[in-house]
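User: Show me a protein chain along with its predicted structure.
Assistant: Here is one chain, sequence first, then structure tokens.
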Amino acid sequence: MTRLLPWTVALCLAIEASPPALGAEPTFRVSEGGAEARNGLSLDQALTALQSRLADPDPRGLWVFEQTDARPLPAPPRMVLLTNGDRIPADDITLADDRLTATIDNVGVPQTLEWPLEAVRGVLLPASLETGRPRLARLLEGPGLPDDTLLLEGRDRVAGEIVEATTEEIRVNAPSGAVEVASNRVRAYALSRALWRENSSPTAVLVITTHGAIHSAKSAVVRGARVTLHCEDAGDVVIPIHAVARLTSYGQDVRDATQLPRDEATATPYLPARTPASAATVRRLFGAIPRPPVLANRHYDGGLLQVRGRTYARGFGVFSGTALRLRVPEGAERFRATIGIDDAADGGGAAIFRVLADDREIWRSNVQTGRDAAAEVDIPTGGATTFTLAVDYGPGGDVLDLADWCEPVFVLESGFGDEAAAVLTKP
């Protein structure tokens, strides 16, 4: 079976532009860098602001467009996880002829999406909803597996080469021969990491929709009450404005820290007491599916980054006792991020966030708990070559310390960033 396909992704999204009939007219919020946010924008005001930003030939800074109190749509039972970090909720998924096809019908009009297999990390299926979905997502979005693998109920696995997958069954060429497995027995399937193609282009626009999809694009425009995303090798992806929960526009002078080369992170387990809480933490840290000290673009239990109800598509999820060293890009003048304890901690957790420049502390937060509002980091780089993002234990030890560094970016000084630099995306 040959899978040496060019990087092409075809997405066909046909979505009506009219907002949902029920509920009040949506309002919007716009923020840029460290400036005060503009709240309570009407649809017309929001579209004007968004159109102005996306039409700017030389955008600068980190610009965020959000729908206030967006009503999330029910999540479809399946999820496609892509190699570039995008997530696509879907109703039906099939794999055949070296391509993965998904259909979605949760915004009023059916949509069809198609990818070559080297663009796909794996797929979460309905059975995973009751059996450790975050852990499966963490496995598929982490280092991956050397072979195509079906993850079954009871932690059984079937490894080999997936040749076809439908809503009824999945066929695998295993070392022992052809195997057919009923789809309702499969919690997820992973595609071999040997197939993955790393994304080498920086993201200019990132969209989170109200039904939980994440789309990254090279550029975007506003047409009527819709946002049209220009995705790499994917054509146009059209999303109605009422389905946009959050849109982040990266200026030419902004470097997304999650897409920059970084050194290995270190973690120091907290084990001072023989208590049930610390024992549970140890089991979570060193369970059947090991996890690295840092998870990119998701919190440390595997879900999307979310702090006080606001979801972020990019960032680092860590546990307390973790330090991540970043290499500061040339020309970087400032570092910005939003920090806090993830909502997955359900109000628990307490940790201290620190930033070190060339191993010297330059910023420290107060103790952040799972009930505190998110805090903003906006500090000069001071010519440092490395930045270390550290999270220390709070007064409660390590219990529920799901610490998030959301939308961490370096902002370049004037004269840099006129051309987008090539960056390395790590899984």
